[in-house]
Structures are given as structure tokens and as C-alpha cells.
Design goal:
Blueprint lengths: L1 E12 L12 E13 L10 H15 L2 E5 L3 H10 L3 E4 L5 H22 L2 E9 L5 E7 L16
Parallel strand pairs: 1-3, 3-4
Antiparallel strand pairs: 1-2, 2-5, 5-6
């Protein structure tokens, strides 16, 4: 069984090293989808959607209406500090790929044991920056010995 929950947040960022328009400070209406795959319990529930929200929402609340800034982008940090703007310093560049991977690692770190105890074998995260552009990662929470090696999700 597969289930998924969607989240939305607004955030700004820039990629100062990017050769195109992404080097400029700009914003996105991000759409985050967190999916789980596993075996539902005897009552037919894999994970209650409200329980999943309790794990993901604190991260969304931190990023929503903030500027996501790489730790090495000190120039932008100084400007935002001067303006009194809300920002979050990340230990990586704020690409869709990095943010997506971060969310997956966050879920595994914060709730991995809890998810495994509920029969979740895999999780996936999709982060869309625009209507046409997204990053996605899939992570295995347990090793499925019956699958072909190529079918295994990334270990994350």
C-alpha cells in the first residue's frame, strides 16, 4: 500500500554560483509530497495522516515565508540580518534536490523507528519548485530480500 500527504510553503532562495536567473534572490510556492509504502495494520491503516503531519509540519513551519540561505552565502545572510528578514541557514545550497534529500533524511532521523514499527518499508519525497519542475528521492527503510537489487530504493 502507498499513501502520501502534501504540504505547501512559500520561501525565497538564491544560488549565487548559478549561471542563469537562479543566481538572483527569488521565491517559490513549494509543494512537498511525502509518501510511504508498507503494509497496513489489521484495521487498514499504514500511518495516520495526522501523525505524519506532526512529523513534517515543524520543518514546514520553519521554512515557510523564510529565505533559505546556504551557510557559505554570508553576503545574503548579512543583507537579511540588516533588513530584519526571516531566514534559515542551511548546511547546503538550497537546490530542490538538496532540500528534497534533507526532508527524507529528516523523516528518517526524526521518525524512522516509528515508521518501521508501523510497517513502512519505503518513503519517498517530492519537492516541486514550480508547476513543471521537481526533485524526488526514494529511500528504503528496510531491506526487502525478495526484490531484485536494481529495484531497491536508495538507502538514504
Amino acid at each position: 500500500m502507498k499513501i502520501a500527504k502534501r504540504f505547501r510553503f512559500e520561501a525565497a532562495h538564491r544560488l549565487p554560483w548559478h549561471p542563469g536567473a537562479c543566481r538572483h534572490l527569488h521565491g517559490h510556492s513549494y509543494r512537498l509530497t511525502v509518501g510511504l509504502e508498507g503494509t497496513p495494520d489489521a484495521r487498514g491503516i499504514l500511518v495516520d495522516f495526522q501523525d505524519l503531519k506532526r512529523v513534517v509540519q515543524p520543518l514546514i513551519d520553519t521554512w515557510d515565508h523564510a529565505t533559505l540561505v546556504a551557510s557559505n552565502d554570508t553576503a545574503l545572510q548579512e543583507v537579511l540580518e540588516t533588513l530584519g528578514s526571516r531566514y534559515v541557514v542551511l548546511p547546503f545550497d538550497s537546490t530542490a534536490e538538496n532540500l528534497c534529500t534533507y526532508v527524507a533524511h529528516h523523516l528518517i532521523h526524526e521518525a524512522g523507528d516509528w515508521l518501521r514499527a508501523r510497517g513502512v518499508r519505503r518513503l519517498w519525497v517530492r519537492l516541486a519548485e514550480t508547476e513543471t519542475s521537481f526533485a524526488e528521492i526514494e529511500c528504503a527503510l528496510v531491506h526487502d530480500v525478495h526484490s531484485e537489487p536494481a529495484a531497491h530504493a536508495e538507502a538514504c
